[in-house]
Amino acid sequence: MSAFGLPSRASSNTDPEWEQRVQLAACYRLVALFHWDDLIFTHISARVAGPEHHFLINPYGMLFEEITASSLVKVDIDGNKVGDSPYDVNPAGFNIHSAIHAAREDAKCVLHVHSIEGVAVSAQKNGVLPISQQSIFVLSSLAYHDYEGVALNAEERPRLVHDLGDKNFLALRNHGLLTVADNIPDAFLFMYLFQTACMIQTRAQAGGGELIPIDPRIIAGAQQQAKQVTRGAGGALAWPALLRRLDRVNPGYNV
């Protein structure tokens, strides 16, 4: 049995889908562990392998720290549930995620948070500043999307997709942060860098001193530097260690 008495679906899923469920449930719990969650109101989605274009997303009403592989809800591109689940999905959340999944074949995982520091920086006119090592990786692939209210309006979808373009980091003005990747570990690593850059920026600004900007030439080479640091593995290099930490402090996501 999984959380809230739901039966485990491990035996009824193909191996690729179950692995994706476990990875996504772990990602939700890691977001909670790092205190980026906003009660039940943000979202991480992941594409399920196969021609059907199905996606996994959080059951609306569960805290991120409670989510298990079995409790994730599978939906189609229109947000209709695929299979039985007692949970609905957040319509605003799926509106954002489905637009990106539909537009980008490489968008296997879309991670969105309302972290305090992220919202604070997204509300600043100049956005992310080049003042930390973390910021250079964000700035090398960063886009912005202006706030249009709670994301319920389908008419916003093409504007959001246009603003994101081919970038991996999106600052949703006055709203929060979003990362896109072709796998869950990379989406998490991107959000770690994004959130950390915002945290450093807000604390540096609070110090009141003059900030030292990083040379744009360094930012231009940031993506190649990132590949060297991670040995080309991206988020997968840190992911096993993150799962070991999760197993120590909040096990049970993989049921």
* CATH topology heading: L-fuculose-1-phosphate Aldolase
Q: Let me know the CATH homologous superfamily.
A: Class II aldolase/adducin N-terminal domain
Share in β-strands: 5-15%
Number of H- or I-type helical stretches: 9
Q: Tell me the series of helices and strands, N- to C-terminal.
A: HEEEHEHHEHEEHHHH
Instruction: Classify the helix fraction into a percent range.
Output: 40-55%
CATH class: Alpha Beta
Largest beta-sheet characterization: 7 strands, mixed
Overall mean pLDDT stands at 91
Number of spatially distinct domains: 1
| Shape call | globular
Secondary-structure-derived class = alpha+beta
Which spans have pLDDT < 50 for at least 5 consecutive residues?
A: 1-7
**Second-tier CATH architecture:** 3-Layer(aba) Sandwich
User: Could you give the distance between the termini?
Assistant: 7 Å
Count of DSSP strands: 7
**Rounded to an integer, what's the Rg over CA atoms?**
18 Å
Describe the structure.
The structure is a single chain. The protein is an alpha+beta fold and 255 residues long. It has a single domain, classed as 3-Layer(aba) Sandwich (L-fuculose-1-phosphate Aldolase). The chain contains nine helices and seven strands. Strands 3-2-1-4-7-6-5 form a seven-stranded mixed sheet, sandwiched between helices. Strand 5, helix 5 and strand 6 form a beta-alpha-beta unit. Helix 2 packs across helix 5 and helix 3 packs across helix 6. The longest helix has 24 residues. The chain is globular and about 55 Å long.
